[in-house]
Amino acid sequence: MTSPGYDLVLLDLDGTLMNSAPGIVSSIVHTYDHYGVPVPDADTLRRFVGPPITESFLAHGFTAEQLRDVVGTYRADFSVRGMYVNSVFNQITDVLADLREAGVRLAVATSKPEPYARELTARFELDPFLDGVYGASLDEVTRARKGDVIAYALAELDAAQPVPARERTLMVGDRHHDVDGAREHGLACLGVSWGYADEGELVAAGALGVVDSPAELADLILAR
């Protein structure tokens, strides 16, 4: 797998930069227990990480009529507890520093609601490496799909400084939603193997490739 090098890289958050699954899953289990609904199995719970939480709750046991209250219960727990059961993946900070030093523009584009994403990148000291943190709207309706978040991120970044051509811009993520969203905007998406995708998911979705370490990710972006 080769690369021409990239000038702008959009980075997913959960499963790409941060190991957020333990906290997310804990708050999801709390929500199911609160409503007395059977908790999905471990594989299903893992798939909650990445897509909009509204989609996952609707697909697994809750109705549209319940959704507002269910999401409120989840967020009440997540915002004070689950969000902080989290860590940055090994080597990620060093790789972001290397890319930044090389002049690559970096920004987060995540389906996590933007206020939570901004809180996490600040708390875990990722902000010095980033040109911006862009996420879903809190209602996860007006801006929830990954394609919508990428459109928003590109527009905001372009307003600050013109973004490079599409072939010089890369999305990096761990789920097929990242690949699908990137494709909507003519972007390649590079998958990472340390996230939460099912085996073969990223390749089947059409990812540029899948890297197995942050160091390999940096090498590809910098074409070295």
TrEMBL record:
One of its GO terms (molecular function) is protein tyrosine kinase activity. Gene3D superfamilies: HAD superfamily/HAD-like, Putative phosphatase, domain 2. InterPro entries: HAD-like_hydrolase_sf (IPR050155), HAD-like_sf (IPR036412), HAD_2 (IPR041492), HAD_sf (IPR023214), PGP-like_dom2 (IPR023198). It holds the Pfam family HAD_2. GO terms for cellular component: cytosol. It comes from the Bacteria. SUPFAM superfamilies: HAD-like. This is Phosphoglycolate phosphatase.
